[in-house]
Amino acid sequence: MKIGLYFGTYNPIHIGHLIIANHMAEFAGLDQIWMVVTPHNPLKKKATLLDDHHRLQMVYLATEDFPKIKPSDIEFKLLQPNYTVNTLSHLQDKYPNHEFSLIMGEDNLKTLHKWKNYQVILENHNIFVYPRISSEPENTELKSHPKVHIIDAPVVEISSTFIRENIKKGKNIQPLLPSKVWEYIDHNNFYKK
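Above: the chain sequence. Below: its structure as tokens.
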């Protein structure tokens, strides 16, 4: 089975994430998309994250109507901070019959050369890249790598940061979230302080 791994803190998951995940499931030749909830991204401050179980629950709520999209807590059980190369190695050992690929935005591809053991990732895994608006300089060498596949997906410029900031300001951002996720956030008074 061909699995696309879509990593994120999902703090919170929003419709942009679902648009990309569904597009990859339908148009990139992948059988399933696993939305891997990252407990601690080495590049983000941990203090800004909701507890892992709340973010995972929101991904469950957001994806339950999408049979090809699955939540994954695989990184919860691994050493912190998480590095993608270690997660991929663990998954390959655990599921030797699956073929794992990465899904990432074009902005992440531009900084892939800074990732731990990025060459190992490129040797062993395909990377499906969706377009993002970014001011980072182009990395044409990686873009033309045989394992990198640029997918003509919708450009979605919604960020979890924007959502959190505007919930705090009392703005109505409900259309940017799956309804069950909005209800969960509202019920728990998340991001209001």
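Helices lie at 15-27, 52-63, 84-94, 106-110, 118-124, 140-143, 160-168, 179-188.
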